[in-house]
Amino acid sequence: MALIKDGKQVSDQWLTADADTPVQPDIPTIVPFARFIAERDSLLRSQAEIGVKLSPGDDVAALAGDLDRLKVIAVDFPAFTDGRAYSYARLLRQRYGYRGEIRATGNVLRDQYLFMLRAGIDAFEVTDKTQISSWIDALEEFSHYYQKASDAAQPVWAKRHTTVAAAE
Amino acid sequence: MYRYDEFDATLVRERVSQFRGQVARRVAGELTEDEFKPLRLMNGLYLQIHAYMLRVAIPYGTFDARQMRKLAHIARVYDKGYGHFTTRQNIQFNWIKLDETPDILDELADVEMHAIQTSGNCIRNTTADPYAGAAVDEVEDPRAWAEIIRQWSSFHPEFSFLPRKFKIAVTGATHDRAAVRVHDIGLIAKKNEAGEIGFEVMVGGGQGRTPMIAKTIRDFVPRDHLLSYLEAVLRVYNMLGRRDNKYKARIKILVHEVGVEEIRSLVEAEWEAMQKETSVDLPTAERDRIASYFSAPAFEVLADTDRGFEARRFEDRDFAAWVRSNVKPHRQTGYAIVDISLKPTGGIPGDITADQMDTVADIADAFAVGSEIRATYQQNLVLPHVKLSDLPAVYDRLKAAELATGNIGLAGDIIACPGLDYCNLANARSIPIAQRISERFADLNRQFDIGPLEIKISGCINACGHHHVGHIGILGVDRKGEEHYQLTLGGRADEAAAIGRITGPGFSYDGIIDAVETVVETYLAIRANPEERFIDTLDRVGQDPFKERLYGAKAA
Amino acid sequence: MAAKALKANRLSDGEAVWLSRTGIWETRVTLARVEEDADGIAALEDAARTATADCIVVDAELIDMEIRDGAPVPSKLKERIRALGPTVRLDLGKQAEPESRLGKVA
Question: What is the ipTM of this complex?
Answer without folding.
Answer: 0.96
